[in-house]
Specification:
heterodimer, A: 376 residues, alpha/beta, Aminopeptidase, nine-stranded mixed β-sheet, two-stranded antiparallel sheet, 32% helix, B: mainly alpha
C-alpha cells in the first residue's frame, strides 16, 4: 500500500469515528425533555389541531390550555420561538407547572419552534443543555437549542429570504427563523407553516392578547423592553407602569411598520389579538461573551460584558452580578401577570386572572429549581 | 494577560508551526489549532464542537464544488475558448470600454448570488483567458477577477454581508441599492482600467487569431453558450420568481454542467467532475478547518476577547480598528466578520446613517476574501489563471485593498452627507 493511501485510510477512520461520536450527541439532542402538567392545565393540544398540515411534522408542538372556572378573556404566551433564549422557554415551563387561570383562558406554547430545540447553531459553541437541582435533590435538564429550525427538517436555505406577505428581503439564514415568517402560509416552508398554525390558532380561539417571549444579547438596542403593536400600546403602557411599582425597569417600543414577519407586527395586523413581544438580557447569545458554557446560561455573569458596559457599548446595565436566569424569568413572569391585570382593567367583560405564577422576588430568593416539579 | 489571549496565541502558534514548519495542509493545521484550543481550555477533545463547526460551511462547500464542476464542463465542451473568440473579435479595438465591461461581466454572478467564489469560478473563468490574450500577465488577470469577485459580492441586488450586519440590529435589507452602487461601481471602473489598460494593446485580428481556438466556435456555433446562458437565466429567475426557480445554486450549476455534455465537444463527465472536485478539495478542507476554528474560538471566549478588544479602542481610533480588525477576522470568514465585528461596529456608529454605514462595513468585510489562509477569492482566481502560488495574485491586490478600505471609511465618515445626496 502506498504511503498516501495509508494516510488516507487513517484519516478516513478517524473522521468516521468523530462523526459517530458527534452523531450520538446530535441524536441525543432530539430527545424531548418532560414538562410536568401543573394543577391549572386543563388540556394539552397539538398545534396541528388548528392547522392539520403540521400533523406528524417536526414543527408540530404542544399547546397547554388553562381554562378558568370563570369566563373571561384569553391570553397566549409563546415561549421557545428562539430555543437559544432560555428565559423564554423556562417562563412557559414555570407557567405550565405552577399557574392556574381563575378567570378566562390561558394558552401556553413552550416550544413554538420545536425543531429549533433539536440542534445548536454551528460556530456558536453553545452547551447542549442546562440543569436545575430541585428541593428533593432530583435534577431537571433542558436542551439549549438554536435560533432557527433544524436544517435536517428544512434545507437548504435560499441565498436571500423573501418574506412572502411583503416581499421584504433578509439574509438567507432567516428562512428558518420563526419570528420572521409570520403570518405564515400553507404552501411555504416548514417554519412558515408553524407560523401559520399559530396565527390560525389565534384567529380560531379569538385570543385577546398574545405575548411572545424572547431574550437579546446585551449589545442589542431593544432589550429589557416590550415591543408592542399600535393597538396593544395602551395595555403595554399600563404594564410598564405596573412593573415600575415592582422596581422592574422596562422600555416600551412601538412595533416598526417596515420590519416584517415578526409576531408584534404580523399577529397584530393579521388577527384581532393585541400583539406584544418581550426581551430580557442574555449574555450567552451575545457576540462579546467570554467562555460559553452552562454556567454562563444560568448565571448570566460575564467579564467581557462588564468591560463592554464600562466602555458604554451596551444597552442594559451589566455588572459583576450578571443577569441570572431567575432574574430574566422573573421579569417575564411578572410582566405576564401585569398584562393579565391590565387586560382585566381595560376590558372588564373579558377578565384574565391568574394564580400561582412564581414571583420575581421568590425566584431570586429560592432559585428557579424550587418551582419545577419532579419529573418521573 | 487574559487567559483568552494566551489561548489565542497558542492556537495561532500551533497553526503556524503545523502550516509553515511541518508543512501540513492548511485544513489540517486549522484542525490542530482548534484541538489545541479545546485541550488548553479544558474542553477535552470536544469532538461534537469540531464536527458542529464545519456545518456552518456545508452550503458554501456545495456551491463551490458544483461551481467547479460546471466550469470544468463548460471548459471541456469548448465554450470558454469560443467565448474568448467572440469577445476579442468584437471589442479588441476599444480596451477602455472592454475592460470595465469585462469587470462587470465578472461581477455579475456575485451580484446575483452574493458569493465572490461563484463570481470568480464562473464569469471570472470566462473573463480571465480574454484578459490574458489581450496582454495581461496571469497574476494581474487573477487580481482583476478576484476584485470582480468581491465587488460583485457587495454590489446590489444581493449583498449577504450587509444583510447579516443589518439583521444584527433588525434593519431590513431595504434602501441599500444606491449606496452599494456608489460604493462598488466607481471602484470597478477604476480597478479595471488601472490594472488592465497599461497591458492591453490594440491588436489586429490577424495577430490574435493564431492564439485562439477558432475552430470550436465555427463547428458548434452559439449553442456552445447555452449552459452559461441557462445558468445565468436560472440565477436571475431564482431571485425574480423564487417560488418556481428558487432551486439553489448547486442545482443550477449541475443543470448547467449536464447541459454542457450535449452542446459541444464530447468529454467524460465523471473524469471532469472528479478532477474539478480534486482542484476544489484544498479550499473545501480549509473551510471545514475554519469552521472548527471559529467554533472553538467562540466556545472558549477567544471570539469575545477579540471583539471587546476591538471595541476598546478610543473613539478616535475606531476607524483604524474597523479597518484592521474586520479584514483580519475575515481571514477566517468574511461572513463571520460581518456578524461578529460588523454588528458591534455598526452599533458603535449609531449616530451615522445606518444604511450607508452598514453598506460600507460590508465592503470592508468583503476584503476578508483576500485574507490568508482562506482567501477564497484570491485562491480561486489563482487557480483560474493557472498561477501556482496565490501570493502572486495577492501582491497585486494590496493597493486596491487599501483603496477599498479608504473608500469605505470615507462613506462611513460622511454617511449622512452621502445619504442626503440621493
Amino acid at each position: 500500500m502506498q504511503k498516501n493511501h495509508i494516510s488516507a485510510a487513517i484519516i478516513s477512520i478517524l473522521t468516521l469515528a468523530a462523526c459517530a461520536v458527534a452523531g450520538a450527541s446530535f441524536l441525543e439532542h432530539r430527545k424531548v425533555e418532560p414538562i410536568v402538567r401543573g394543577p391549572g392545565v386543563t388540556e394539552v393540544v397539538k398545534l396541528s389541531a388548528w392547522y392539520a398540515g403540521l400533523a406528524g411534522t417536526p414543527a408540530d408542538t404542544d399547546v397547554y390550555v388553562f381554562r378558568g372556572q370563570n369566563p373571561g378573556g384569553s391570553m397566549l404566551v409563546i415561549g421557545g420561538t428562539h430555543p437559544n433564549e432560555p428565559s423564554s422557554f423556562l417562563s412557559a415551563v414555570l407557567l405550565i407547572e405552577n399557574a392556574s387561570a381563575e378567570s378566562g383562558t390561558l394558552y401556553v406554547i413552550p416550544r413554538a419552534n420545536a425543531s429549533g430545540f433539536t440542534h445548536n447553531d454551528p460556530q456558536e459553541g453553545a452547551p447542549l443543555a442546562y440543569s436545575f437541582t430541585l428541593p428533593d435533590g432530583s435534577k431537571r435538564t433542558f436542551r439549549y437549542g438554536s435560533r432557527a429550525t433544524n436544517p435536517v427538517h428544512q434545507w437548504p436555505d435560499t441565498d436571500v429570504y423573501v418574506h412572502a406577505a411583503s416581499g421584504q428581503t433578509l439574509s438567507g439564514n432567516e428562512t428558518r427563523n420563526l419570528n420572521r415568517g409570520y403570518p405564515g402560509r400553507t404552501d411555504g416552508t416548514l417554519t412558515e407553516k408553524a407560523c401559520y398554525g399559530i396565527t390560525e390558532m389565534i384567529r380560531a380561539e379569538k385570543i385577546d392578547l398574545s405575548i411572545d417571549l424572547h431574550e437579546a444579547s446585551p449589545e442589542y438596542p431593544v432589550i429589557n423592553a416590550i415591543v408592542a403593536h399600535e393597538r396593544a400600546m395602551p395595555i403595554a403602557s399600563q404594564v410598564v407602569l405596573g412593573l415600575e411599582f415592582s422596581d422592574i425597569t422596562i422600555g416600551l417600543e412601538p412595533s416598526p411598520k417596515n420590519l416584517r414577519g415578526l409576531t408584534h407586527r404580523e399577529l397584530g395586523d393579521a388577527t384581532d389579538t393585541l400583539a406584544v413581544l418581550m426581551e430580557t438580557a442574555n449574555p450567552s447569545q451575545g457576540r462579546l461573551r467570554s467562555r460559553t458554557d452552562e454556567a454562563l446560561v444560568l448565571t448570566g455573569k460575564d467579564p467581557y460584558y462588564v468591560k463592554a458596559q464600562k466602555l458604554g457599548r451596551l444597552y442594559v446595565p451589566f455588572d459583576e452580578k450578571g443577569h441570572p436566569i431567575e432574574e430574566r424569568v422573573g421579569r417575564h413572569l411578572t410582566a405576564i401577570g401585569e398584562f393579565a391585570f391590565a387586560m382585566s382593567g381595560e376590558y372588564p367583560d373579558r377578565p384574565i386572572e391568574l394564580s400561582g405564577v412564581p414571583g420575581y422576588d421568590d425566584l431570586g430568593a429560592k432559585g428557579l429549581g424550587a418551582f419545577l416539579r419532579t419529573a418521573d | 494577560m487574559p487567559f483568552e489571549f494566551t489561548l489565542f496565541l497558542a492556537m495561532v502558534g500551533v497553526f503556524a508551526v503545523c502550516a509553515f514548519a511541518v508543512k501540513l495542509p492548511v485544513s489540517l493545521s486549522m484542525l490542530a489549532a482548534a484541538l489545541t484550543g479545546l485541550l488548553v481550555s479544558g474542553n477535552g477533545l470536544g469532538i461534537r464542537h469540531l464536527v458542529e463547526g464545519t456545518f456552518g460551511y456545508v452550503d458554501t462547500i456545495l456551491v463551490i464544488a458544483t461551481a467547479m464542476i460546471f466550469m470544468r464542463a463548460v471548459q471541456e465542451s469548448g465554450a470558454l475558448d469560443a467565448l474568448n473568440v467572440v469577445i476579442i473579435k468584437r471589442f479588441r479595438t476599444v480596451p477602455a470600454l472592454l475592460l470595465p465591461m469585462l469587470m462587470l461581466v465578472a461581477m455579475f454572478p456575485g451580484m446575483i448570488t452574493g458569493s465572490s467564489s461563484a463570481s470568480v469560478l464562473t464569469a471570472g473563468a470566462v473573463v480571465a483567458p480574454v484578459l490574458m490574450i489581450l496582454g495581461l500577465p496571469a497574476a494581474e488577470a487573477g487580481a482583476f477577477i478576484a476584485l470582480a469577485g468581491i465587488l460583485g459580492m457587495i454590489a446590489p441586488p444581493v449583498n449577504i454581508p450587509a444583510m447579516i450586519i443589518g439583521g444584527g440590529i433588525d434593519m431590513p435589507f431595504v434602501g441599500f441599492e444606491v449606496p452599494l452602487l456608489l460604493l462598488t461601481m466607481p471602484l470597478a471602473v477604476i480597478f479595471s482600467l488601472t490594472i488592465g489598460l497599461k497591458h492591453v494593446k490594440k491588436l489586429s485580428w490577424e495577430a490574435l487569431a493564431p492564439k485562439l481556438d477558432t475552430e470550436t466556435y465555427e463547428r458548434y456555433g452559439i449553442r456552445l453558450f447555452a449552459p452559461i446562458l441557462v445558468v445565468a437565466a436560472l440565477m436571475v429567475l431564482g431571485k425574480v420568481v423564487p417560488k418556481y426557480f428558487g432551486m439553489g445554486l448547486p442545482v443550477v450549476f449541475l443543470i448547467g454542467a449536464a447541459l454542457a455534455l450535449f452542446v459541444g465537444k464530447r468529454f467524460n463527465p465523471l473524469l471532469a467532475a472528479k478532477s474539478a472536485v480534486a482542484d476544489a478539495l484544498p479550499v473545501l478542507g480549509i473551510l471545514a478547518g475554519v469552521g472548527m476554528f471559529i467554533q472553538v474560538m467562540t466556545l472558549t471566549g477567544v471570539r469575545g476577547f477579540v471583539v471587546v478588544s476591538a471595541l476598546s479602542v478610543p473613539p478616535i481610533m475606531l476607524y483604524a480598528a474597523i479597518a484592521i480588525t474586520i479584514p483580519l477576522f475575515g481571514a477566517v470568514s468574511s461572513f463571520g466578520a460581518s456578524s461578529v465585528l460588523g454588528v458591534p461596529f455598526l452599533l458603535a456608529l449609531l449616530g451615522k446613517n445606518q444604511i450607508v454605514t452598514a453598506a460600507a462595513l460590508s465592503l470592508i468585510a468583503s476584503l476578508g476574501d483576500f485574507m490568508p489562509p482562506t482567501a477564497l477569492s484570491a485562491i480561486f482566481a489563482a487557480q483560474v489563471v493557472g498561477v501556482e502560488k496565490y501570493s502572486r495574485v495577492l501582491r497585486h491586490l494590496v493597493i486596491p485593498s487599501i483603496v477599498i478600505l479608504a473608500w469605505a471609511l470615507v462613506f462611513i465618515a460622511y454617511s449622512k452627507q452621502i445619504a442626503a445626496m440621493y
